[in-house]
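FW: tagging you since you asked about this chain on Friday. Here's the raw sequence from the shared folder, copied in full. Didn't touch anything.
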Amino acid sequence: MSYYVGNGVYEYLSRCPKRDSFYWTSGNLWLLVYGNTYDEPKVLTIASEEKLEAAETEAEKKAAQMVVKIAGNTGIPVNFVRFDPAAPIERVRYCERGMKSTSVISSEELKNRFARYGLIMNQLPAQKSINDKSSSPYHVWQRLNMGSSVVVSDIDLLRLENHEPEEIIELKRSFIPLDRWRPYEKDYNNFRLLSALAQKRGLGFYIVYNYRKKTPFFDDVSYLKIFQFDHRRETECSLLGYREIDKFAEHKLTKW
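HL: got it, structure written out here
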C-alpha cells in the first residue's frame, strides 16, 4: 500500500536544481523520533513496510545512513523496524545500531526493545494521532501499544550541506490562508521533541507552511510561511516571514 497522495513541497524539490540539498522519505518508509513525557528524544527509528523476507532495499540503506548522521554524536540510539504490509503487527524484522544483522522478533519483544530506551508505555490513548499520510499497520500498533506517555514525530524534511543534516523542517499545509495560519498548540509536544533533537545535534528546526487550495484542488507552494521553533526560549515559536519556494530551496533558513 502507498500512503502519500502528493505533497507540493516534495514535488517542487524533486525537480529543482537544489534537489541534492534535501532528503526526505516517501511511500512506505518513515523516519521517526520517539521521546518521553519530557519531550526528550530517546530513539531514532526507521520504519519500513516491506515483506519481512525481502532483501534490503536501496531506500532502506539510504535511510539508515541518514538516520546515523542525524544521531551523530548525540548518544541517541538508532533502530530499524520492518513490518509486513498485509498483516497486523505480530512479527517484525528488527535491528539496532551495533547489531551485525536483522532478526525477526515478536510484537511483545518489540515493545520490550523500545522500553529499554527509556520509553515508559501505558494503555491510555496516544497524545496525538499520526497524520493521514501514515496510517500503516505499524502506526496502528504504535498508537495501541505506546499510549499517551510516548511522544513520536515524523521527520518530514532535512536540508543538507555536504551530505550532512543542517536543518530539520516540519511541513504543514491546510486550507487556511497563509496570513492566518499559525502552528497549533496541540502539536507543541511534537515540535518540542524535534527541537530537542535538533538542539542536541546542532541543527536548526523550522516549521514551513503552504496553502492548499480547494478549487481547483492543489498545493500552492509558490509562497511559504516559515516559523522558527526553539523549545529553550520563552517564546518557543516565532514567525521568520515568507519566502518564495525557489528562494527557500536555494538559501538555508539558518542564514535568514
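FW: The two ends are 39 Å apart (CA to CA).
HL: agreed, and The CA atoms of residues 68 and 118 lie 19 Å apart.
FW: great, closing this out.
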